[in-house]
């Protein structure tokens, strides 16, 4: 079990960056959580940013010390994604994981996950897990392609502290599976919750828009796409972009 210690701050550049800096000090342990009402430079994967209204949503980062082999790094993506799926499913809705770790309701993004690992001799010694979750925001900037919040889905406001505790509980449950080596189970459940599984998708690769059928995710986290000849190719994150 992770013993969560939550530090709630009003404003920070990015909870991931703040927590990463904090880990350079002594006495910062697994389970440290930084929860911020507002991020001035929230970060997404790659070069993207994470934009969220002040005090309407959840933006937080958690320090874990998984101690698993680097070859299992995709299991980290899986355990966090599944904790979010568990939490949302308990509201009676049908969330999906858009590979690798965007959380979707129908065709719209409700949460994003940014995991930053520290490797020591081929072992993931620590990870900062950043989660941005749209809870009560009604209006989003035009430039965001397809955002949605839990309030927009449920047509009622949700207490952020309550849902935050539920996420921490589910993270604990899934982390236990990770720590006990239940990698196959995590992978199976992750695959069962993939957005557009066995459906035709359009994707951008090598400067071209292509079509294929999403045939699942490999154990190492590659997206498997079948082309019109029936050949299946695995792609790493960054090699393609699903449209
Ligand atoms: C993505 O969808 O690209 C990932 C978004 C992750 C956003 C969260 S908000 C809390 C934490 N701090 C950050 O700067 N980013 C993550």
Short overview:
This protein is of the alpha+beta class and 243 residues long. It has helices spanning 15-22, 73-89, 150-154, 160-179, 183-192; strands at residues 5-12, 32-39, 58-64, 68-69, 95-98, 102-105, 108-120, 123-133, 200-205, 208-217, 223-226, 232-235, 241-242. The model has no long low-confidence stretch (mean pLDDT 96).
Q: What is the alpha-carbon Rg in Å?
A: 18 Å
Task: Tell me how many strands there are.
Answer: 13
Order of helices and strands: EHEEEHEEEEHHHEEEEE
Helix content: 10-25%
Q: Give the assembly state of these chains.
A: single chain
Count of DSSP-assigned helices:
5
Largest sheet: 8 strands, mixed
| Unreliable stretches | none
The termini sit apart by 38 Å
Q: Judging from the principal axes of the Cα atoms, what is the shape?
A: globular
Beta-strand residue fraction: 25-35%
Give average pLDDT, whole number: 96
- Output the structural class: alpha+beta
Which small-molecule ligands are present, each listed once?
biotin
């Amino acid at each position: 079990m992770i013993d969560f210690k939550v530090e709630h701050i009003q404003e920070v550049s990015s909870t991931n960056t703040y927590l990463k800096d904090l880990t350079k000090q002594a006495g910062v342990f697994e389970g440290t959580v930084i929860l911020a009402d507002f991020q001035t430079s929230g970060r997404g994967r790659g070069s993207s940013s994470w934009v969220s209204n002040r005090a309407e949503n959840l933006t937080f980062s958690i320090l874990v010390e998984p101690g698993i082999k680097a070859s299992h790094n995709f299991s980290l993506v899986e355990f966090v994604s599944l904790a979010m799926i568990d939490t949302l499913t308990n509201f009676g809705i049908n969330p999906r994981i858009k590979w690798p770790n965007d959380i979707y309701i129908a065709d719209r993004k409700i949460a994003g996950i940014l995991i930053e690992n520290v490797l020591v001799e081929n072992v993931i010694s620590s990870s900062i897990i950043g989660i941005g979750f749209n809870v009560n925001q009604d209006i989003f900037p035009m430039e965001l392609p397809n955002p949605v919040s839990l309030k927009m889905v449920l047509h009622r406001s949700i207490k952020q502290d309550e849902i935050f505790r539920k996420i921490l509980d589910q993270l604990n449950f899934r982390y236990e599976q990770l720590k006990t080596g239940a990698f196959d189970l995590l992978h199976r459940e992750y695959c069962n919750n993939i957005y557009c599984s066995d459906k035709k998708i359009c994707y951008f690769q090598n400067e071209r828009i292509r079509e294929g059928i999403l045939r699942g995710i490999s154990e190492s986290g590659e997206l498997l796409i079948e082309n019109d000849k029936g050949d299946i190719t695995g792609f790493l994150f960054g090699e393609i972009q699903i449209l």
